Amino acid sequence: MRTIQVKDFDDWRSKARKLIGNQVPPSEVQLFDDDGQRSLFGDSPDLDEASLATFRVSKEFLSLAQSVGYHRDFNRWNLLYRALWRIKNEQPYLLEIETDVDVHRLIQMEKQVRRDAHKMKAFVRFRKVERDDKEYFIAWHQPDHRIVRRVAPFFSRRFKGMNWAILTPDETVTWDQRELRFGPGVTRSDAPGFDELEDLWRTYYANIFNPARVKVKMMKSEMPVRYWKNLPEADIIDDLLTDAPKRVEDMIQQHEGFEQTAANFIKQTEIESCTLATLKEMAAECTACDLCRESTQTVFGTGPVEAKVVLLGEQPGDQEDIKGTPFVGPAGKVLDQAIRSAGLNRSELYLTNVVKHFKHVKTNNEDVPNGTKRLHQKPNAREVRCCRPWFDAEWSCLNDAEFLVCLGETAAKAILGPGNKVSAVRGRILATDYCEKTIVTWHPAAILRSPFEGQRQEKMRELIKDLGLAGR
Ligand code: URA
Fold it and tell me: I need a surface site. Which of 278, 283, 326, 371 has the fewest CB within 10 A?
């Protein structure tokens, strides 16, 4: 029996290729985690480097193997090698046989890793510490699996303007706004236990110039555009205006983590036992942003926890706000029709929104009984970001979700990042931080708002087609 130590997935991959090339059957090799200690048995130096196998394995297997590599089961490298051997020598389409014991276990492990990664993304909370006049943000987390390296790039994108560290018993990861570095694991007591984020955010927000306040319309009405060129500052006005949305986004990107968000309403003590029902209860109490003041209630997602397809809208509308359920108003009717035409069943889907409160303005309208009408207003980037922890937490509960369908621009931008217009990305299956199979499509309200019948029909056809992709 050979014994081989494996550091990580890349190491397993190169060793497995060598083993396959040397025709070593799985029954004659034991693959162990390389925990930094010298093996009693040593590696297998006699394997022939020259006979590195050149056969190709499918992308599906590689992606499955990579995920399983993060699992804590000590036997995972052996199981992966056995599956690889069988694919090469016995059954090239092994992965399609979901009833096979090895395949079943691999899929189960992949799901457990995916779920754990979602949990980490949703529930890690940073605390500020100051050292040598510098601010650091430190979080403690105890994942079920060895997922730190899988999840770290997500945090470096999301908190790219902060110096942060995530401490876990397996390993630590630090980010200095340029590079991720990994080190040995630590114990819980190494993480700081206080939180000053809220104050910091308030002070910060109150003191800086906020480019979101550049009001183009007002500037133009105060001074006609044709006079701008005579002003000494004229050169910079264009740049200022062009840059404003980006600067708003950068500002938020850099300082996300300082602000008051829904995360403050997710009780840390209950994370482990979190269910959609407990999350809904917690969300009902959320006052993280001002939208809760003018709306009737928090409208949380609905649908079975085992849903395979998750539909993400923008925010509840007037009817949803009153009834407390997403997509029950006019846009919901259009969506229902599209869902049916796509061959899906609404009761099997999970429906939710990026923002959980109804943002609106009141206008006088004599056609309605109480004389005022509530008109939908688009949530801004701050409100989206503030509410995002609810979707993160919902997503972390939805273990079986395979497709995430973003309905409209607000959902697309929340999941794919700014600058993703529906017309540019719709109808394709995209891999995102949330889901390997993310689809962007038209919001049903955009269909209702389209001025021409032809446009409405075309968008409806596309919405049905895109939902059909998820249905398949
Ligand atoms: N529009 C949405 O985005 N969500 C709803 O729940 C209703 C209308």
Answer: 371
CA dist list (Å): 224 to 108, 221, 228, 235, 237: 64, 6, 7, 16, 13
* Ligand 1 centroid from CA 335, angstroms: 10
End-to-end CA distance of the chain: 45
Q: The pTM is what? A: 0.70
Number of H helices, E strands in the chain: 18, 14
Mutate to test the pocket of ligand 1, among 310, 315, 387 (most ligand atoms within 8 A of CB): 315
Ligand 1 surroundings by CB, under 6 angstroms: 313-317, 320, 326-327, 329, 331-332, 353, 445
* Among candidate residues 183, 379, 395, the one with its CA nearest the CA of residue 279: 395
Choosing from 350, 443, 447, 463 the residue with most ligand 1 atoms within 8 A of its CB, the one to mutate for a pocket test is 443
The sign of the torsion formed by the CA atoms of 411, 415, 418, 424 equals negative
For 3-36, the pLDDT digits (tens) are 999 999 999 999 999 999 899 999 999 999 887 6
Å from CA of 439 to ligand 1 middle:
17
For 273-331, list the strands marked E by DSSP.
309-313
Q: How far is the CA of 352 from the centre of ligand 1 (A)?
A: 8
Adjacency order of strands within the sheet including 403-407: 350-353, 309-313, 403-407, 438-441, 429-430
C-alpha 332 – ligand 1 centre gap (Å): 7
Q: From CA 105, how far away is CA 9, in angstroms rounded? A: 18
DSSP assignments along 420-440, one per residue = --HHHHTTSEE--SS-SSEEE
User: Separation of 24 CA from ligand 1 center, angstroms?
Assistant: 57
d(CA 435, ligand 1 centre) in Å: 21
Q: Which residues pair with 138 in a beta bridge?
A: 127, 165
For the chain, where do the domains classified as CATH 3.40.470.10 start and end?
262-471
**Which numbered atom of ligand 1 lies nearest the CA of 327?**
6
Which DSSP letter does residue 373 get? E
Query: Using an 8 Å Cβ cutoff, are 346 and 376 in contact?
Result: no
Amino acid type, 37: Q
- From residue 428, alpha-carbon distances to 218, 273, 406, 432, 468 in Å are 39, 35, 11, 12, 12
For tokens 């394709």, what's the residue?
428
Reduce the DSSP state of residue 404 to 3 states and report it.
strand
Structure tokens at 234: 């004229």
Q: What is the pLDDT of residues 252-301, one digit of tens each?
A: 555 554 567 888 888 766 666 779 999 999 999 999 999 999 999 999 99
